[in-house]
Every structure is written in structure tokens, then in C-alpha cells.
Amino acid sequence: MLLGGRTVVIVFLLCSSLVLLRLRHHSDSPHVHVKAGGQTNQGGCSGRLARLNDLGIKFPVKYASRDIIIKANSDLNRTSLTQIDAPLLSDVQMVDPVKNPDGELEQCSPSLTLEVPAFPGQPANASHIIFGISTYIKRMDDSIPHLQRSLAYTNARLIILAVDFGEVTPSRKEMAVLETRMHGLGIDATVLGAPKDSSMQTRYFSLAKILYERRDSKTQWISLLDDDTFLPSMHSLVDTLGTYDSSKEWYLGAMSEDWWSVMVYGMMSFGGGGTFLSIPLAAQIDANYDTCLQESTANQGDIRVFQCITAHTTTKLQPLTGLHQTDLGGDLSGFYESGRLPLSLHHWKTGWHFEQKPEQRALNTYPMAKMHLVSDVCGDCFLQRWQFGSNTILSNGFSISTYPNQNFLADLVKNKDMDKIEDTFMPTREVNSFMQGYEHSIGPLRPRVEGKIQYKLLDAKAEDGGVRQYYIYKALDEEPDILYEIFWTRNETHV
């Protein structure tokens, strides 16, 4: 609908915004090279194997483990890649806790101390933000653990506009049970029933009015989310919003990573990445709500918000670096192994709708709450990258990767190619434009690495005063799988 004579204008405006995005991206801290610190043998090798039985994997497996002690340092900033002069793990050993549950390891790596940037010990104060989600009430079961990690005890308010399958209003009991459950988890949630037979796009658009009407004297922002939007760092989000004057009209969000979608739908905030409206702009939507409701025939709620803002205000989208619609197809490893800390993530439940085959979408579902669990120990270390030795990179909460040889990885680091995102994605839809693919959003990209071996996160548990992660490589044929265990604990002494 925007591909005719308006294409040149859109491309010009996009390029202007993208220059700002790139400038902000390249202000990130460079790589840091440090020596491994404080290696001591704390736990020995005993008692490690019995708990492997709970992982639901086949035995025997090749296994190795490492304890990592986190020390917060107020002089550090998070970097794209931190190089450590030590291997991550010792040689693997064949284990079978089913046949030998009390077996002892022949060797285990001594603990390793890593420094991370200092982080607050308390949840962020987000009392000035009201979040809103329009969804089917049954879908909230999957969303609650992730909302808990984002919103619990932050004083942010959450409004859920709920509908039941069949487009009917949920019962009062269902809504009360959901609300009570979320209150018990520290989430200040209010569950409202959507009108019977209301359309999805109307429900989403109505959230802008509902949230505005529920503002109080503290409220500076209202935010529209999907039920599969994840906010990894409320502290970072609050700090980022704090750089904008909320007394002015602001329309903050993320465009799609898919250039085809941007060219078709325009410079709008795609809802899954999160849309943030300042109260003055929300007031404009509220004042023109009935007119906008009649004027728009768009089949998506985020488009209706965009159309209302465009038709009745002079405010334009301000792309917010770090918000991600995550319209990425195929293997998303390049995105999650980039070392960047996102402000939002999307499509972790079911993958991107463009991936029509169910098996493709199933590959792109991620246990985001488990992936993010390690942040309880080390703050904003989620997806942070460490290089251990010459050829191993830990992308915290997603994978451990070993590269083909030490020279290969050294060349990537030397040429600053590790600052680029590895292009592991499926081809994008073609559009008649000088720009293609994902470069405008997450670029620059570098070619996929052939021969890289990935150990993907299998599970994570909070136990024994820390967080225990398990990463697994699924071997081919009849070869045993390889399992790595990383146990994160915190040194309460701050540097």
C-alpha cells in the first residue's frame, strides 16, 4: 500500500533514521582482553552427576563442567566481546548417571572468577510506565513466567485486555484467578474483559485509550506489547526512556527487521517490539479515538495506532535502538550470539509467521525465561559474550560455540568482524529497492561460519545459591551427545 510514488520519500526518511541508529550502535564499548582471575577449586568433583538425570537426555554423554564466580566492578562497561586467557572447560569425560549415579569425575575444572559491570541489587522503578497486552486468556500461561522476569516488583502497571477462544469475554472468575496469580508473583496486573465479538485489531488499538484513561500523576509513558514480547532489562529500558522528554509527544518503537515489511507498512512501530507513547501523544490518540476507529480499516492494531498518529498529529516514529520485532527467519543464532543486549525480544513463543512450515517455526521457539535466568546472578549479562582461549565463545544463556581453528576466530576479532552479526538467517522476501534483507536493522552482517560447533542451552535452574546452566551438542548417528554444565555464583565483594 506504500509502494507507489511514496517509496522515495519512505526510503529517504528511513535512511535518515538509520544513520542515527548506526551512530548509536557504534558508540558501544570495544572488545576487552583480560586475564582469568581467582581460580580456586571450590566444589571438587563430587555430587555433580546425579542431577543430570532430571534433564531428560540419553546416556551415556560426554560431560564437562565449570563453576564461574561473578564479581561486580563499577569501573566496567559491558562490551561486545570480552576475551579471557583461560579455557572454558576441561576435557570431556564419559558419564552415565543411570548406571552409576554415585560415580565420581576423574577431573573437573577449578572455579573461574569473571568481572562484570556493577548492577543494582533491587528491581528498577518503573512506576511511570503502564504496559498493556491484548490477548487470549489461555495464552497467558506461557507468558506469565516471562512477564514475571520483566515486571515483577518494578511498580510498573500492566493492563491485560483478555478474550477467550471464540472471541467471547472470559468469565469474571477466570479473570480474577489470573489477576490474583500475577499479584502473587509481584506483577501489578489488572485483567479486563474485551467486548464480545470485538476484533483483534480493535482490541489492540483500544489499549491506547484504556491505558491513557488509567494514568495517574506518575505516569509518563504507556506501552503496548504483545503477549510474546520479552523485556530483558527493565533497568536499561527505564534509563533509555529517561533520555527522552516525556512532556513532549513521542512515538517510540522498532521497525521490522524485514525490509519487505518496512516497505509495505511504512515507518511504524511494529507492535511485537513494544510501542511506547508519551502521555501528550496518548492524549492526542484519545481525543481522536472515535474518528480513528471509523477511519481505519487496517487488519492489525499496530497499523491502526500508526495511522491515527499520522493522520492527527505531526509526530513521527523515533526508532529506539535495542527494541526488536524479531522478524527474522531460519536460524536465529547470529542474532542471539551477537553480544548485544536487547531492550525487547519478540516471537520467542512460536517463531515468525513468515516461516510457513510448522517445523521451521518450532525451531525458533526459545525458553526465554530459562535463558534469562542467569541475570539473577550477574545483572545485564544475558547474551553477553566471552571468548575463552583461542576458539570458544560463550553467548550467555544461548550457546557455547567452538570455532574451526584458533586462527579463524583470531582473524574475526582482529578484523572487527565479531562486531557484525553472523548471517545465519533464511533469505528475505525481495522488494524493488536498493536495500534488501536485514541490514537496515541489525546490520552490518558477516557470512555464516562453516564448521562452527554449537552447544545450545538445554536447561537452567536456580539452585544452591546460584544458577546452573546446561548446554548440549546433539551428536550425529550413534555418537554420544556432549553436555556442558556451567554453575554461576556471585562474589558479593564489589570492586
TrEMBL record:
InterPro entries: DUF604. It holds the Pfam family DUF604. The keyword Translocase does not apply. Residues 1-21 form the signal peptide. Keywords: Signal. This is Glycosyltransferase family 31 protein.
